[in-house]
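Handoff note, outgoing to incoming analyst
You'll be picking up this chain. Sequence as last confirmed:
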Amino acid sequence: MVKLISTVVLLAGLSGAAAAAPKKASKAAASALVPGRYTAHVAMLACSECGRNVEKVLNETKGIERAKVDSDKSAVTFTVKPGSKIDVVALQQKLKSSADEMGMGADYRLSKITALNKS
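Most recent structure output, in case you need it:
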């Protein structure tokens, strides 16, 4: 009987803890880059070819032009053309695919994306 009561109390406590700490809904807000000039940090440029790969991915993305990587600073600057909107999530996926093809620990994800000016 004591064992049964202990089990019931334990289960009641666990369900109460679960109710007291509901899971937070994650809001992955889809952000977009509007026309203008941007700079960003590139996570990991493993070799000299990596910078060219990042430039290629960005310059081949519809709505982006003038991508230039500074490998020494692991930074890239690029322009979003007037009338364009760039889906950041889709852009990061393209960069990840290119880095995965390169291998060697390359990681082309962008962080600290900062607008330099608006077109």
